[in-house]
Amino acid sequence: MSSVIGQSYIDPRGDLLDKNRNPTTGEPYLDIIEITLVSSGSEYVGTIKLDGDVPSKTADPSIFIEWDFMLDTDKNPNTSPWGRAPLLVNDIGVDYMVRLCLLGDDRWGEIYDGLKNSFYGIDSYVADNQIKLTFSPEDIRGSTCFDFVVLVRKYGNKGAPDALLIFDKAPGEGHFRFEEGSVTYIPRVSALPNLPNFLILVGVVAVIPVIAIVIVALLKRKPKSNNNHRDKPQVSCK
Question: Which end of the chain is least crowded, N or C, by CB within 10 Å?
Fold first, then answer.
């Protein structure tokens, strides 16, 4: 069931994963421990709280790190320009990335519009282990209700798509929805085989009387006359 959680969500510590979704270890500033998204006047302010202070530069200049709010503004997982990416963003289709980036000693905030393949600079603020990203509805095509997943990624090779090393995401399954100033957690939709057993039982019980009626009707059928020719099958030309 969906559950309203206000504006913030606590994420477990020590849940970093590698590109094969195996548990791994990494720098504390890659580990999400709390996320917040609020309306502030005419803007949205997203906060990512981490298990360690955010660095001002990377030890290796080839390392690229990003802290993201991944937004599905049309709430349709099938319309993302990137396609489906359940490993990183669960069950949403990302239209916009609102993020803080770090490459070497260069740190900046931006929105990536996947539909237009374009970038926009945004206000970002870093204090100790917290990142604040400020954006407006106009930055995301006027959307005031959207689904999202928070994601932290560390890449080698200056961010090449095939060089993912470590990531963390919140939530671990399902996604959040932001609407009317509140964040709601929406769990992953279960497949049909996971429905409660009583629903399956009801279906079986409902079929039993139908089977009985068919059997009785067959037993009451009169035998056909014994003709010397076989009945021809009916053929429709329609």
Answer: C
CA atoms of 125 and 40, how far apart (whole Å) = 15
pLDDT tens column, 63-107: 999 999 999 999 999 989 888 889 999 999 999 999 999 999 999
What are the boundaries of each domain within the chain? 3-186
Query: What backbone torsions phi and psi does residue 147 show, to the nearest 5 degrees?
Result: -95, 155
Beta strands in 89-220 (DSSP E): 96-103, 106-113, 118-121, 123-127, 130-135, 145-155, 164-170, 175-179, 182-186
Distance between CA atoms of residues 175 and 148, nearest Å: 6
CATH number for the domain formed by residue range(s) 3-186: 2.60.40
CA distance 158 to 164: 10
Cβ-contact 37, 178 below 8 angstroms: yes
Contact in structure between 149 and 62 (CB atoms under 8 Å): no
